[in-house]
Amino acid sequence: MVPPVSDLLASARDHLKVGSVEEMADAVTRSHLADFGCVGWYAEPPPGWSVTIDAEYADQAIPEPLARRFGEERFWERWTRAECLCKLADIPMLAWWPAHGLEVPADFDGEWRTLALGPLIVSVALAPKRA
């Protein structure tokens, strides 16, 4: 039986693995890293829901144009979360920014969690599937 969304997010750390792209080939969803590594999510979402992840190295430099636009405070947490929401909505980040910046829209009907996983910041988001 697939656990509810809140339980999946509470136990997110147990469903994430880090390795090579080849090692993460069987993941439900993946996020590719700048060093060609990969983070995989290993838990099925509840029926009727989609899941996505995004990961970045916490200590990497924030590109100056992005720091100017969005600020540096908790940047990678906000960035990975926004990336997840874009993936769920099937909207490119460049189209997302004008309307939402790196914030969660008030009408987002899903759930998310952002956590540290070793040197990484990882966001996991789930939302009801769209027709």
What are the SSEs and their pairings?
Layout: H1 5-10, H2 12-15, E1 16-20, E2 29-32, E3 37-41, E4 49-57, H3 64-70, H4 75-89, H5 93-100, E5 111-117, E6 120-128
Antiparallel strand pairs: 1-3, 2-3, 4-6, 5-6
Work out the radius of gyration: 14 Å
Structural class: alpha+beta
Distance between the termini: 24 Å
How many alpha or pi helices? 5
Poorly predicted spans: none
Question: What coarse outline follows from CA principal-axis ratios?
Answer: globular
Tell me what portion of residues adopts beta-strand conformation. Answer: 25-35%
User: How many β-strands, per DSSP?
Assistant: 6
Element string (H = helix, E = strand)? HHEEEEHHHEE
**What summary fits the major beta sheet?**
3 strands, antiparallel
Mean pLDDT: 95
Order of strands, main sheet, comes to: 1-3-2
Description:
The protein is an alpha+beta fold and 131 residues long. Helix content is 31%, strand content 30%. The chain is built from five helices and six strands; from the N terminus they run ααββββαααββ. The protein has helices at 5-10, 12-15, 64-70, 75-89, 93-100, and strands at residues 16-20, 29-32, 37-41, 49-57, 111-117, 120-128. The strands form two sheets. The protein has a three-stranded antiparallel sheet. The radius of gyration is 14 Å and the shape is globular. The two termini are 24 Å apart.
Keyphrases for this structure?
31% helix; 6 strands; 3-stranded antiparallel sheet; single chain; 5 helices; 131 residues; globular; alpha+beta
